[in-house]
Amino acid sequence: MKQYIRLTLNQRIQHIILIISFLTLVATGLPVRYHDTAWAGFLINLFGGFEMRGIIHRTAGVIMILGFVYHTFYIGYLWIIRRKPLTLLPNFKDAKDVVHNLGYFLGIAKQAPRFDHFNYIEKAEYLALIWGTIVMILTGLILWFPDKAICFLPNVIFDISTVLHSCEALLAFLAILIWHFYYVHLNPHVFPMSKVWLTGKISEEDMKEERALEYERIEGKTME
Ligand code: HEM
Predict the structure, then answer these.
(1) Which residue range(s) make up the domain with 48?
(2) Ligand 1 test: best mutation among 165, 166, 173, most atoms within 8 Å of CB?
């Protein structure tokens, strides 16, 4: 059966590094926020005590930073050198698709909107990821190096960073658990799991159904 590339090997490796660093950061960070619960005590022991947990948290933080820096250069290279379009940036069609899809769910529109390589849901998730990562890295570095931060930032920035880092951590965890996990695991269409993150490919059938515009562009034909 014919298959189409959805994620390249490079993108799949970036995704796996993000999964590992993010889950490690959540597992070693949230026990600090909820330090008086039994599960937090369990996780802290599992990571070899409070000190060791902190070292693992910072190490995973450095991996996340390296992944983010790499991703920035990777996107820049594709855009500036290879002259590829930034397909994950929202455009006017995405705004129309949101309204169209709402109409479809309410039974007003007869057909669902037709998407290209990335739909508005995926673009929104990607932008939330980029924004969240920037916030976590900046606030994480301030918490890590308060003496350095205090040299050129006002005192209050330390308190703001603590609150932001802690709340954004919970928000990111819940967003992944509810939003992303539904989309790639619990959604009846892909349950128990979409294998795109491993194989990088999707079938012709899925391509026609979920990425009709991309399918037509690649195949050079119009589908009804
Ligand atoms: C999505 C990524 C991350 C998550 C989910 C996360 C989560 C957390 C949480 C929940 C706390 C406890 C805050 C509190 O309630 O007091 C924390 C603390 C901290 N985080 Fe992160 N974090 C992330 C990324 C980072 C990064 C990138 C760095 C470093 C560059 C970092 C460095 C720190 C430091 C230094 C602390 C202070 C407490 C400790 O020793 O663990 N974090 N993190």
Answers:
(1) 3-219
(2) 165
